[in-house]
Amino acid sequence: MKKTALFLALSLGGICAANAATQATSTVTISGDAVYSIEAQPAKILGTWLGKDANVGGFIVSNAGPIEGKAEVVFDGANMCRSESSTSPCYIDKTDPTKNILVYAEGLNWADATGFTTPVIQAGAKSTINMKATQEQTLKPGVYELTASVQVATN
Predict the structure, then answer these.
(1) What predicted TM-score, i.e. pTM, was given to this entire model?
(2) How many CA atoms lie within 13 A of 70 on its CB side?
(3) 3-state secondary structure (DSSP) of residue 12
(4) If you compute the radius of gyration of the chain from its CA atoms, what whole number of angstroms results?
(5) Which sequence spans correspond to the domains of the chain?
């Protein structure tokens, strides 16, 4: 009986391991009054045509700190694209950076040229950030990515 229970436990452990996540999230923790981390929303599959204001993807910012506060989300420099009149964050295809999707953070204000500040996030709470398309566009097939980090907001 003990051998059967041990075999069953080992088998179930193998099944659980086989069902492990196929995607990992890099988390950044900043020490200070509020402690923030950022993770990506689940990946989406989009068609080749994208409408203006369509939800492309986004992030979830968590505050694990003891107090409420604002977070500043900063985009990787490679994810800042120049459009006709300004520079904005963009999802890019790592194999062909000329393929991109210009986006904005729904309802959030720019903190500087490469990021934005969230509203106040309560301790232990999360804030969902939706990245929306700035324009209609036809997309070429590929895998588009947007990389961001988070830090305590200075304003």
Answers:
(1) 0.73
(2) 13
(3) helix
(4) 20
(5) 24-152
Q: Which two tokens stand for residue 88?
A: 């904005």
Give domain 24-152's CATH architecture. Answer: Sandwich (2.60)
pLDDT digits (tens, 9 = 90+) for 88-127: 899 998 888 889 999 999 988 776 667 888 888 998 999 9
Structure tokens at 46: 């989009």
**At CA 7, angle to CA 3 and CA 10, rounded to 5?**
140
Do 61 and 71 meet the contact criterion of CB atoms below 8 Å apart?
A: yes
35 and 29 Cβ atoms separated by less than 8 Å: yes
Asked if 48 contacts 140 with a C-beta cutoff of 8 angstroms, the reply is: yes
* Residue 37, both tokens: 């981390």
Cα(93)–Cα(79) distance, integer angstroms: 10
Report the half-sphere exposure of 12 (CA within 13 A, side-chain side).
Answer: 6
